[in-house]
Amino acid sequence: MRVTEKDLHRLIKNKINKAGLSIEHAEVVADCLVYADARGYHSHGAMRVEYYSERIAKGGINANPKFEFKITGPASGVYEGDNGVGFVVAKNGMEEAIKMAKKNGVAIIGMKHLSHSGSLGYFVEMAADEDLVAISICQSDPMVVPYGGSEPYYGTNPIAFAAPTADDRKVIFDMATTVQAWGKILHERSKGNPIPDTWAVDEKGRPTTDSMKVNALVPIAGAKGYGLMMMVDILSGVMLGVPFGKHVSSMYEDLTKGRDLGQLHIVIDPARFFDLDKFKRYMSQTL
C-alpha cells in the first residue's frame, strides 16, 4: 500500500498521541520519522512507531518531561531532557544552538537524559537552513564488537554533518560508525532477507549472512571506526555525565525505564571565518 507523506505523518502523529504523548510532541516525532522515510532511511522511519508507542505507554519515555536549558558559557549550554522523547529534546537543543551560534559564532550544546532521537540528519539540516554549519553526535546502546574483540562495548554512535550552499541543495552527511545501523538489520530481518557478511557477527564472533543470527555489529574501517565510536561516546556520554560505553541502556530491554542517553550539537557560523556568500558559492562548486 502506498501513502502520501501527509497521510503517513497523520497516522504516526495519531498513533504516538494515543500512546500518551502530547499532540505537540507527537507532531515532532512524526516530522522526524517521515523525514527519514522520505529519504529512504526506512530503518529510522515508520517501522519504529510501534517501539516508540510501547515505550511511551509503559513509561520508558516521559510523556510530561520538565525540560531545562542552562547556559554554561558564551558558546556552551546543557539541555536537560528528563527522559522525554528524544526527537523533541534534540530539536529543542538545536534551536538553542542556532540562536547561540548566530549571536556568538559557535555553539556547543549537550543534551542529556533523552530517549532515541532517530536520524541525526534532521537536526543538522535545521542549522543548514539558517546558513550555519553543524555536527551532531549521540550515543547508542552496546551492540558493536571492538576491532578484534568478541563482546559488544560501544553502540552504533552516529555522526551527522550539514552545511548550506548557494542554491537549493544542502550537504547532509549522516552515518553510523558501524558498517550498518542496527535498524538496517531489523529492516532486513522483518522481510526475512539475508545480509552481507561484512555487516555483523553471530554469538561466536563469526561473520554471518543470517539476519536472525546477528549478535553484534562491526565498526567501519576496523580500528579506525572503533576509535570514532570511542570519540562519540566520550563527547556525548562521559562529558555529559550520563551512562557510557557498556553501561548505556538497551533500546529494547525494560521499556518502563528512561534511557538517559546523551547527545551533542556543535554549530558554527561560517560568516565568522569567511565571506558567507563566497562560502556558499564554494559549497555549490564543491558539489
For the structure shown, list the relevant keywords.
alpha+beta; seven-stranded mixed beta sheet; two-stranded antiparallel sheet; 19% strand
What is the element layout, followed by pairings?
Blueprint: H1 5-19, H2 23-38, H3 49-57, E1 68-73, E2 76-84, H4 86-104, E3 106-114, H5 121-128, E4 133-138, E5 159-164, E6 170-175, H6 182-190, E7 200-201, E8 216-217, H7 223-236, E9 261-268, H8 276-286
Parallel strand pairs: 2-3
Antiparallel strand pairs: 1-2, 3-9, 4-5, 4-9, 5-6, 7-8
Summarize, please.
It contains eight helices and nine strands.
Overall description:
It is built from eight helices and nine strands. Helix 1 packs across helix 2 (23-38), helix 1 (5-19) runs parallel beside helix 3 and helix 4 packs parallel to helix 5. It has 287 residues and is α+β, with helices and mostly antiparallel strands. The longest helix is centred in the first third of the chain and has 19 residues, at 86-104.
| CA-CA gap between termini | 35 Å
Strand tally? 9
Structural class: alpha+beta
Would you list the SSEs in sequence order as H and E? HHHEEHEHEEEHEEHEH
Beta-strand percentage range: 15-25%
The poorly predicted ranges are none
